[in-house]
Amino acid sequence: MKGGRLVLQVPFLYPPHDEPYDFRRWTVHGLRQLAAEHGFVVVEETMNGRPAETAALLANLALAHTALRWLAEKRPQMALLPLVPPLILLINLLGWLGGVLGGADGWMPHSCRMVWEKPE
After folding, report:
1. 22 falls in which pLDDT band (50, 70, 90)?
2. What are the start-end ranges of the E strands in the chain?
3. One domain for residues 39 and 65
4. What confidence tens digit (pLDDT) does each residue in 42-71 have?
């Protein structure tokens, strides 16, 4: 097929999901190679998330998963559930602040967005 544009965004640093069907991680290098293999040219590339923001995202996912497990299993730790939302908020704020103070350098993003074009 000649011509066309593909806009895609993929998670990069993320815990396993959709198990047992989580087969592949998409790095920026792998996406560039995939584009070239299929005759596309990468015309735009954006790495989303600074290291502290990505770390906060992962911490919050782990915390929420743990809290839901406590709830599902009716564990005594359920008494701590009211602390989870404020803790998630605090982690988000620290991640944001760490991102602002630390700056962006493309290391440890949480996702990659690309625009590929296929020459006419």
Report:
1. low
2. 5-11, 41-48, 111-117
3. no
4. 999 998 899 999 999 999 999 999 999 999
* Count of domains forming the chain: 2
Domain range for 12? 1-49+108-120
Question: Do 86 and 113 fall into the same domain?
Answer: no
Q: What is the DSSP letter of 3?
A: -
Say which residue, 2 or 114, is predicted with more confidence. Answer: 114
Q: What is the pTM of this model?
A: 0.75
Q: Is 45 helix (H, G, I), strand (E, B) or coil?
A: strand
Quick check: bond before 16 cis, omega within 30?
no
Residues 30 and 5 in one domain: yes
